[in-house]
Amino acid sequence: MELGPGSVEGVELSEFWRDKRVFVTGATGLVGSWLIRELIGAGARVVALVRDWDPQSELIRTGLIQETSVVNGAIEHYATLERVLVEYEIDTVFHLAARTIVGAALRSPLETFEANIRGTYNLLEACRRQGDLVARVVVASSDKAYGASDRLPYTESMPPLGRFPYDVSKSCADLIAQSYYHSYGLPVAIARCGNIYGGGDLNWSRVVPGTIRSVHFGERPVLRSDGTYTRDYVYVEDAVEAYLRLAETLDRTEVRGEAFNFGPTEPHTVRDVVTALERLMQRQDLGFEVRNGAQAEIRNQYLSSEKAGRALNWRPRYTLEQGLTRSIVWYKDFFGRAA
Asked: Packing angle between helix 119-129 and helix 78-87, nearest 10 degrees?
């Protein structure tokens, strides 16, 4: 079923977003592109922070970026952030900008800490200083913020205890966000998602896009780990709805300053995902190659989303099979256009 802008399975977004002035960092990333699509469809005025011009980004490739106000700059540059808030009179901020690849974070921890930690406190400080404008801030975090734990599923009562560079950067960003709420009353909330996947993710080292590309071209998928690592896999449209729902409810005391987990109803192993994709693409003859070389990866991680269900009435709309099916359709179209 083809969805029009501003809808999730035909459900119209609330009138809440009409004429809201929204600043999205990380605008050309997977979630940023889908989020902006929904915001524009709901009548919001979007300002997109763009560091690098990537013509393959879904936001740019589709021309949707032409419907936004583009600010070129990096999240590490404080003056740029404050200028955006002031000149565009921003009332809502979605902070998605980050270095998100675990392997890249391990190889380049300094750049990861600069983007994920410094970038977060830069933005939150700008929001604090322009508190007469900014009414709501959503910080996109990750299940990695919790670090490794034998207690599963992860709940929001557990402290952020990252150990590896990417995980530590998300733990720090979450603590900084909560500090700005408790110290200054900044209207901020934190969204912790599992592994987000969907059309538009061109980071081929990730299991979903990498496997779809391999299978599409008749190649054997490669597993970086032994394939038994357990994760939550969240379809991108479910993640976008979570961010929107969180922002819409930030005037409530039980939401402001809080962290919320957003995950599917059950976790899956990497092997589960690869096997499902081969079955859905009718290439079960390929099998897969196990490299077992993953580093700085937590073996088992999955979330309880009960708090989001109670406070936000959020539940995922898509099963893993439904999300993977929609993703396959997107990638087949993408590969066809590139041929």
From this structure: 40
Based on the number of CB atoms within 10 Å of its own CB, is 82 exposed (0-12), middle (13-18) or buried (19 or more)?
middle
Task: Note down the domain range covering 108.
Answer: 7-197+234-263+302-317
Compute CA 92 distance to the chain's CA centroid, rounded to the nearest angstrom: 17
Residue 124: inside a domain, yes or no? yes
- The secondary structure of 120-167, three-state, reads HHHHHHHHHHCCCCCCEEEEEEEHHHHCCCCCCCECCCCCCCCCCHHH
**Residue 227 — pLDDT band, cuts 50, 70, 90?**
confident
The answer as to whether 294 is a domain residue is no
- Three-class SS state of 172: helix
What residues act catalytically?
166
CATH of the domain at 238: 3.40.50.720
Distances (CA, A) of 151 to 16, 135, 163, 206, 292: 38, 35, 16, 25, 24
Tell me the whole-structure pTM to 2 decimals: 0.93
Number of structural domains in the chain: 1
Classify residue 51: in a domain, yes or no.
yes
| pLDDT of 236 higher than 70 | yes
Tell me the per-residue pLDDT of 59-83, one tens digit each, with 9 for 90 and over.
999 999 999 999 999 999 999 999 9
The structure tokens listed for 116 are: 């994920």
Above 90 in pLDDT, residue 104? Answer: no
Q: What is the DSSP letter of 57?
A: S
**pLDDT of res. 116:** 97
154-175, pLDDT tens digit by residue? 999 999 999 999 999 999 999 9
Report CA-CA distances (Å) from 189 to 142, 173, 181, 308: 13, 12, 9, 12
Q: Does residue 337 lie within any of the structural domains?
A: no
